[in-house]
Amino acid sequence: MIVPLLALVVSSTGCVALYERKFDITVENKSSRPVTLWLVKEGGVSRPSWRSPEEIALMAELPKDEKFGAVIVDPNKVGENQIEGKFESNSFGVLRIYDGELDMNQILARSPGVLRKDMTLFPGKNHFVIADAPILKVEQLEPKP
User: Fold this and answer.
1) Which domains are delineated in the chain?
2) Which of 2, 39, 79, 105 has the fewest CB atoms in 10 Å of its CB?
3) Among residues 104, 117, 8, 11, which one has the least CA distance to residue 51?
4) What's the pTM value of the predicted model, to 2 decimals?
5) Radius of gyration of the chain from its Cα atoms, rounded to whole angstroms
6) Is the pLDDT of residue 125 over 90?
């Protein structure tokens, strides 16, 4: 009965389609404070270069060949990045924007809300402008929401 059981396992797991997506990200920090940026993938299987701070904090050992981490964009500066990744149909890229220049512990302490904005990324050009306000204010210029 090993063969039927094996067939059941193979047929129940199926094949997951992966889509290659490329993002061209620009963040203009027009505020008077620095901001911390982090790219994450929501949904699907975790992928290198898209790991969240929460995933990294749980790792016993960090992969040596993997690039990840926060990027600081100082006031009146522009941050730019081009990145690609493999995504399942139920997953998408997110740019997390944190108010201030934060270390890992501070990043882990921030949930979406006043001091952290999670911006969904779309394949192609993504352009965000951060402005001064009593709270973190982010405007998405491209693509138009």
Assistant:
1) 16-142 (2.60.40)
2) 2
3) 104
4) 0.82
5) 18
6) yes
Integer Cα distance of 61 and 50 in angstroms: 17
Tell me the β-bridge partners of 26: 80, 127
Question: Who's near 117: CB < 8 A, 6+ residues apart?
Answer: 96, 97, 136, 138
> What pLDDT, on a 0 to 100 scale, did the predictor assign at position 12?
43
For residues 82 and 36, give the distance between their C-alpha atoms in angstroms, rounded to a whole number. Answer: 17
Question: Pairing mode, if any, of strands 124-131 and 19-29?
Answer: parallel
**Amino acid of residue 63:** P
* Phi, psi (degrees; rounded to nearest 5) at 54: -65, -40
Residue 100: closest CA among 20, 35, 15: 35
Position of tokens 């040596």? 64
Give the strand pairing for 124-131 and 137-142: antiparallel
